[in-house]
């Protein structure tokens, strides 16, 4: 299960029916799918921002690590304080999934093992990252070489 999928589920694992109880599992799965489709309009773009977009709300970028002391992999790009629909880093289908120009970005940071979520932090990009111009100013000299 990916961290994105885990974030979309309830906190208490005991509330989930098992696959052995086929009817309950099917009803549960269909209900969860309905809730996801009702509240989220973009899910899991593996190579582009964002991983999740909430309808008429914020965007979410999920990052996970299996070591509590390791750095976060930002996929060779600087952290974002927010995202804009005009960004070349966003896919066309994401840009067109609803009418929007800018969304706040929430970084959902999980410390996991192969089977367990140890901790989960959610941080707004405006708290975590500098504004876009700061990174562009740093990046510009390297682009000219």
Give an overview of the whole structure.
The chain is of the alpha+beta class. The protein has one domain (3-143). It contains five helices and six strands. It has helices at 3-7, 22-39, 92-95, 125-128, 132-143; strands at 40-43, 52-54, 59-65, 82-84, 102-112, 117-124. Strands 1, 2, 3, 4, 5 and 6 form a six-stranded mixed beta sheet that branches. A hairpin with a 4-residue loop joins strand 2 and strand 3 (59-65). The longest helix has 18 residues, at 22-39. It is globular, with a radius of gyration of 17 Å.
In N-to-C order, the SSE pattern is: HHEEEEHEEHH
> How many angstroms does the end-to-end distance come to?
42 Å
Q: What is the helix fraction of residues, given as a range?
A: 25-40%
What's the overall geometry?
Answer: globular
Decide which structural class fits the backbone: alpha+beta
Structural Rg: 17 Å
Main beta sheet, described?
6 strands, mixed
Report strand %.
Answer: 15-25%
Number of helices: 5
- Name the quaternary structure: single chain
Number of domains: 1
Low-confidence segments, given as residue ranges, are 10-17
Overall average pLDDT: 76
Beta strand count: 6
